[in-house]
Write a structure and sequence with these properties.
The structure is a single chain. By secondary structure, this protein is mostly helical. It contains 6 helices and no strands. Helix 1 runs antiparallel to helix 2, helix 3 packs antiparallel against helix 4 and helix 3 packs parallel to helix 5. It is globular. The relative contact order is 0.18.
């Protein structure tokens, strides 16, 4: 197994260990898009489903994207693969074992192992696997969750655009 884990380090070209702290205006310009996206996802979920908690991990994803949009953990590839894989694994364990601690434990362990093996480490996906494995009711929300993950993935692009605009704007001011 390669020691060069892409999802655990800043994306190529970021050329830094940690995201630099911005001024208050810059921080809010990065924090507002994830907040709006998650509120939109919640509105979508409310309109189409009653399984609100299944989507809580996407709020953590959005906050991680705000915190460091250039980190490999927050790339579109990592976000999509890990979240959709976790939802699928949680659904499969729920379907085969039922809503139990065994189902949740299996989904969580398999998700963690596959995230490491496939190099798609995105911590909120662990919560996604548990949410689908321990869910209540008979609703199947895999398609709705997939749509919500897609919407959240667009957030990565919004955050990168925001960083570009902020960098360009700060250069013009100097």
């Amino acid at each position: 197994m390669s020691q060069d884990r892409e999802s655990l380090k800043p994306i190529k070209g970021a050329n830094r260990a940690l995201r630099q702290r911005l001024n208050l205006r810059g921080e809010f310009s990065l924090a507002i898009p994830p907040t709006i996206v998650i509120l939109a996802v919640l509105a979508l979920v409310e309109a189409l489903s009653q399984q609100r908690l299944l989507f809580a991990s996407l709020a953590s994803s959005a906050f991680l994207i705000y915190l460091d949009p250039q980190h490999g953990t927050n790339s579109v590839r990592t976000l999509l693969i890990s979240q959709l894989m976790a939802a699928g694994l949680g659904f499969v364990t729920y379907t085969t074992v039922g809503s139990s601690y065994l189902s949740g434990g299996l989904a969580m362990v398999i998700t963690i192992v596959l995230m490491i093996v496939l190099d798609v480490v995105h911590p909120p996906a662990v919560a996604t696997s548990l949410s689908f494995a321990l869910r209540s009711g008979n609703e199947s929300n895999l398609i709705l969750f997939g749509l919500a993950v897609g919407i959240t993935a667009t957030l990565v692009m919004l955050e990168k655009l925001s960083l570009w605009v902020l960098a360009r704007h700060s250069r013009q001011l100097q």
